[in-house]
Amino acid sequence: MSLLTVFLVLVTCSSLQQPQTDIPPQAPDTSIVYTKRRIVLPEVPQRGRILDRHDSVLVATRPQYRLKLPRRPPLDTLALGQLLGWGPTTLRKRIADALPYEEAPAGYPVQLRLTAAEAARVRRKSRDWPTLTLTESRQRTYTTSVGAHVLGYSAAEAEAFYSQAKRYRRGRFYQLRNSGLEGYYNGILNGRRGVLHPLVDAQGQTQGSWAPDTTFQQGQDLHMTLDVKLQAYAEQLLGRRKGYLVALDPRTGEILAYVSAPIYKPATITAPDLAGVRAKLLQQEGMPLINRPAMRANPPGSVFKLVNAAVALQLGAITPATGFRCDQKLVSCVHKHPAPSNLTAGLKYSCNPYFYQVMGKLINYVPDSLVQDTVAARHVNLAEWRRYVRSFGLDSVLGVDIPREAPGFLPTPEYYDKARGTTRWRYRSIYSLSIGQGEINMTGLQMANMAAIIANRGWYYPPHLVRSVGDDGPLPRFTKKRYTLVDSAHLAALIPGMMAVMQKGGTADASSLEDVSITVAGKTGTVQNDEGDDHAAFVGFAPADNPQIAVAVYIENGGFGADAAAPCAALVMEKYLRGNIAPKRKRWEARIQSRARHGY
Questions:
Q1: Buried b / exposed e across 257-267, counting CB within 10 Å, b at 16+?
Q2: Could you read off the pLDDT of 343-378 as tens digits, one per residue?
């Protein structure tokens, strides 16, 4: 018993009822005083690992070596660098990165992480360096430099970051916290210690249990859906730019790549010698710590025309053969193109006046029952539009396995009544919804899922990042297929237009992959921004006839979706489907990666 942790709780009662026990030997004498004991078994569970979809270990609990430098100078940095096998520049940078702010006084306590080989050298020379302190502990170790926003961190190891974040970003601290999979699956990763609950009499004899015993559970591994090689490639395309890229398998809802940019290394948040790097991240205007695909909801721009077209087809406002004039008196159209004579052409050219009139027919429709009340008709029609749009997983959380997913927003008739100060608002005051602007907001996860729904012609599995918990599959909710309210035939009617977008004359024809026999179905978006350059957006999937990957890209201040977002999506699709990039696009790829490194 000396090895056990025992907590004693004395309970005295004159008429004690028979306790609930697993296997009670007999009913205890109710006139005797009993002792409730809680015995925590000594075995401590090992925290589970996190692996990618190909079983490469990304996060594990391993020995970590820390070297504590003497607080009082002078310190012979040249000799210390030689001891550790570091150059003088490397040592100075490592010490600077460990300081929480640049003006830290001389002698500020610094701890440096060492490899096992470096730690062994320090041990061998310990007599020559009595002022150095080497410690060893088991902590979470990242074997990859990518996927920071997905992998997250253990809250127990992030206290230093929490303190820094509260000091630098008091009002935004809640937004900055993103414990990722480490936080979401913390209980599963941690496992469970065994606990016994015996009821003991005065003679020390067990008389049953006063509560059910807790069985020991080893921490379980998480096998992710993420392809770490694709993740690394996608991060190279976004780098220091602001935005996101989400790629998923539409057949399963498994997330293949999940990039929130600007990017940073996952070890940054918990490493003891990266306080200075964390401080810079906290102060950056680009706010790299924000988990953009899950937490940032933005106007989607023209990519939302796909949803509006599908709902208009379902409600009978248009047919695939419906054409409209490109009437720029209604709304401007940035593309020069022939008049869209049908839906395919409207999507190919992303004609704003076309979709203005599509949604206008939907909102302004007046049934015979409301012929005298056009105000009520508009309210009914907007509410019906919203009901169908919500079935795409919008204006609600998708339930992805990452903390604090944002729901986005779709306006209601009541919202406009209040915002406009009258119930007699007209379509002209809400037409921005027709081109994915105004009050509507979507997250990156929702945009990627929208592409998956169209790829599947009307159904989806909730996007998720873990395909297997231990030896089991994903969480049960990720295996339940969900359907939209739009018939598959109407979603299939969008595909020719999305394919035309990527063909000659389409808004993203420069991003075509036809040269490598991959037909892409896509839609570009350029989101108006009153505070700077427009935002670039793109959604799509490939191959168009047998979709295996759906991608959403959003680059803040990126300009046209065709110029900034579509090329990134096309490269990720080609990398995933072929494993390499065709020579034709190598220069194109290098230019995008260069921009990503420089953040423009």
A1: bbbbbbbbebb
A2: 999 999 999 999 999 999 999 998 877 777 899 999
